[in-house]
């Protein structure tokens, strides 16, 4: 591009006019208006701010973020990183943030999978399948989410107590204390194996991209699966075996009031995840359906004329085009899942809102507490938007 | 967006506080400004009272939707003191988490809802406690079928607790001191945390003993539940007003003392009219026959007569609401008669 000569028209600037201090000068008018608007907004913000500070002082309400370093003293049921009530408010809020992310991220993944499957089922030629999907979407979308959450939570509370827990297979217990699963005792060897798996997945992805690029050049197919097998299975297992192959299963067992050991999924988390996933999947299903229907019928016919099987038609021809329609509204749904997770307070899952509410209640610093909640949701939402916009730009039709 | 409504409602509530604090000319802000709650109440012709969302014995709407209970009678008493009429009250049900914000922002004038008086609340929260009208302590309730004798046996238990309360912090402190590990289940609404306990989601439910007794009495089979003997904290439940409003705090405080003194001198709803002729000087001063004690509070000189006529004395309020649900006077007996903690300074 640098070799081409620059279009001389783009270098031609409009003739410079001297700035006249007159109302008839367009630029003077523009400057005056802008200064005026910025000044008014600035004055309002300053006025609100100074009044707030003054009123807080008059009421002797403590201000500032100094409370973040104080001992929180509030118990939290679920924590991804170690926490005890002697830790600070800052750490308690961090636990809340992680709990919000835990439900939002898992919810987004599950809702995308279920939503896509239901959306495709809705378009199925199988009458029963398409009607079931249709009824599901209508029912789920029409009921308020809060109601659905309380419904799921009530159902989970109706499960038998820990001593009469449902026990379908060895080591799995389902009771009103949640779902208990056996889990391996985590050791360093497992971390190394997991790291190898992650690196292997990255390598496989690059290898596959390269294989496709080369295939486009010379037409020879290069199978990806041997590399995938090696990187994703053989290497991690080999590393795990080399580290001594530790394998101790941590079985949940009833001791005292509750189950000890194993992996636990609390009814609060489960109800919230179930509610968010099923609810959002209904919306995603409709977005997927709309996206697929937006692909012109000629594309289907052309793909079939090339002799592609129906699965291939969907995967190779229709979905890549449908994605361009699907991604922008999907971003909204992902943002909705994240924000709707704040309904957790109603069913006792300790997310950021729950913990920030308790914090502001104990410290009395409502403005700071709400500021923290706003900051957290704004950061998460902007991150999702940025990522989805990047992805959208990446898959957008490149016009040549 | 409807599904976002709950969060929005909370956020708006909190934002309302921010706005109230931000706007000086705003009507609410004027109510909230110190030293003139009483003028705002008189101007409005109504006392706005923050009460519990529904706790048997303390504050609960009856079958006609009329609020009744121990805390409610304190709202009625203050209304009778100010207006001479106990019914000029609007009740605002408040959860533990919003109660202080509601008071700070001027949404309510008086908090009469099982609120523990602590140092940090008295200072950093921008509120004052006028008087302790109920001395309580935190306990545990379990299902009788568990066969527990002591709270020390709760190792490994799941415990239901309302967030944003001193209860929650006491529980954490007590568990640490006694090396007891537990899993908390925290739900804000009282009805829902009780439902979680009743359904078996938790092994134990912890709150003030009075609250446990109230919850237990409201169940179909109260005998299925047992309140364990340990009382792990001091919970002086006090009447809260905004900080820096001494005039209104005085009125609330002396209304409470009036109820105690009336019990002490044997003045009750039935004999209040005859008591006006009682020769004892303190009774004469209290009931406005002699001196100007009412005027000193900025009230009608017959304020005491109005209060007793409306709600009776402390013992009458206690017996009407708390005795039926199985709460004994205990520390809430009068010091002057049975050596309890309730004590009124002299009406002089």
Automatic annotation (TrEMBL), chain A:
Biological source species: Belnapia arida
Membrane-crossing residue ranges in chain numbering: 30-49, 103-123, 135-155, 189-207, 227-249, 269-288, 370-391
Subcellular location: Cell inner membrane; Cell membrane
Family from the record: Belongs to the binding-protein-dependent transport system permease family. HisMQ subfamily.
Protein name (database record): Amino acid ABC transporter permease
Keyword list, A-Z: Amino-acid transport, Cell membrane, Membrane, Transmembrane, Transmembrane helix, Transport
Domain ABC transmembrane type-1: 97-388
PANTHER family, alphabetized: AMINO-ACID ABC TRANSPORTER PERMEASE PROTEIN YHDX-RELATED, MEMBRANE COMPONENT OF AMINO ACID ABC TRANSPORTER
Entries under Pfam families matching the protein: BPD_transp_1
Membrane topology: Multi-pass membrane protein
């Amino acid at each position: 591009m640098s070799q081409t000569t620059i279009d001389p028209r783009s270098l031609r600037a409009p003739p410079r006019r001297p700035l006249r201090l007159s109302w008839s000068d367009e630029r003077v008018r523009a400057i005056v208006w802008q200064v005026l608007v910025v000044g008014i907004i600035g004055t309002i913000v300053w006025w609100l701010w100074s009044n707030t500070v003054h009123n807080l002082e008059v009421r002797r309400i403590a201000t500032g973020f100094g409370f973040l370093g104080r001992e929180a003293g509030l118990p939290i049921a679920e924590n991804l990183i170690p926490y005890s009530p002697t830790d600070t408010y800052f750490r308690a809020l961090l636990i809340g943030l992680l709990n919000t992310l835990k439900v939002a991220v898992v919810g987004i993944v599950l809702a995308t999978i279920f939503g896509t499957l239901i959306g495709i089922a809705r378009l199925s030629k199988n009458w029963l399948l398409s009607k079931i999907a249709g009824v599901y979407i209508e029912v789920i979308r029409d009921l308020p989410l809060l109601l659905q959450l309380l419904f799921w939570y009530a159902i989970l509370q109706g499960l038998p107590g820990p001593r009469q827990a449902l026990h379908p297979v060895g080591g799995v217990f389902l009771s009103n204390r949640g779902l208990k699963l056996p889990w391996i005792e985590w050791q360093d060897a497992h971390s190394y194996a997991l790291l190898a798996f992650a690196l292997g997945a990255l390598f496989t992805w690059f290898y596959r991209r390269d294989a496709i690029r080369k295939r486009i050049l010379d037409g020879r197919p290069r199978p990806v699966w041997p590399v995938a097998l090696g990187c994703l299975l053989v290497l991690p297992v080999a590393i795990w075996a080399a580290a001594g192959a530790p394998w101790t299963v941590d079985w949940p067992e009833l001791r005292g009031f509750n189950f000890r050991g194993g992996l636990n999924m609390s009814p609060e988390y489960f109800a919230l995840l179930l509610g968010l996933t099923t609810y959002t999947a209904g919306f995603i299903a409709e977005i997927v359906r709309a996206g697929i229907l937006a692909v012109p019928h000629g594309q289907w016919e052309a793909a079939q004329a090339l002799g592609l099987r129906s699965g291939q038609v969907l995967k190779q021809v229709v979905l890549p085009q449908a994605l361009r329609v699907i991604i922008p509204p999907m971003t909204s749904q992902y943002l909705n899942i994240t924000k709707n997770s704040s309904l957790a307070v109603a069913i006792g899952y300790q997310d950021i809102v729950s913990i920030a509410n308790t914090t502001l209640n104990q410290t009395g610093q409502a403005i700071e507490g709400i500021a923290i909640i706003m900051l957290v949701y704004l950061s998460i939402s902007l991150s999702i938007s940025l990522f989805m916009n990047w992805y959208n730009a990446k898959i957008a039709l490149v016009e040549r | 967006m409807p599904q976002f409504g709950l969060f929005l409602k909370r956020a708006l509530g909190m934002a309302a506080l921010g706005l109230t604090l931000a706007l000086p000319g705003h009507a609410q802000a004027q109510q909230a400004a110190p030293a003139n709650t009483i003028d705002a109440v008189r101007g409005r012709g109504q006392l706005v009272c923050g009460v519990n969302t529904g706790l048997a014995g303390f504050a609960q709407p009856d079958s006609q939707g009329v609020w009744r209970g121990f805390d409610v009678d304190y709202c009625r008493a203050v209304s009778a003191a100010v207006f001479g009429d106990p019914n000029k009250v609007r009740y605002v049900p408040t959860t533990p988490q919003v109660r202080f914000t509601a008071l700070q922002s001027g949404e309510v004038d008086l908090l009469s809802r099982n609120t523990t008086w602590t140092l940090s609340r008295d200072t950093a929260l921008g509120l004052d406690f006028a008087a302790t009208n109920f001395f309580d302590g935190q306990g545990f309730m379990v299902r009788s079928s568990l066969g527990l004798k002591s709270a020390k046996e709760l190792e490994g238990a799941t415990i239901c607790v309302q967030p944003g309360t001193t209860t929650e912090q006491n529980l954490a402190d007590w568990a640490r001191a006694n090396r007891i590990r537990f899993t908390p289940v925290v739900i804000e609404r009282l009805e829902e945390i009780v439902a979680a306990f009743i359904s078996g989601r938790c092994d134990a439910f912890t709150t003030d003993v009075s609250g446990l007794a109230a919850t237990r009495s409201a169940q179909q089979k109260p005998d299925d539940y047992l309140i364990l003997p340990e009382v792990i904290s001091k919970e002086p439940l006090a009447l809260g007003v905004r900080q820096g409003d001494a005039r209104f705090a005085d009125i609330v405080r002396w209304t409470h003392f009036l109820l105690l003194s009336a019990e002490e001198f044997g003045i009750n709803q039935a004999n209040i009219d005859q008591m006006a002729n009682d020769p004892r000087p303190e009774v004469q001063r209290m009931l406005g026959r002699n001196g100007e004690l009412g005027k000193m509070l900025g009230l009608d000189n017959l304020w005491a007569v109005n209060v007793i006529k409306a709600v009776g004395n402390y013992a009458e309020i206690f017996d009407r609401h708390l005795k039926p649900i199985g709460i004994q006077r205990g520390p809430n007996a009068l010091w002057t008669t049975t050596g309890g903690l309730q004590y009124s300074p002299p009406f002089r």
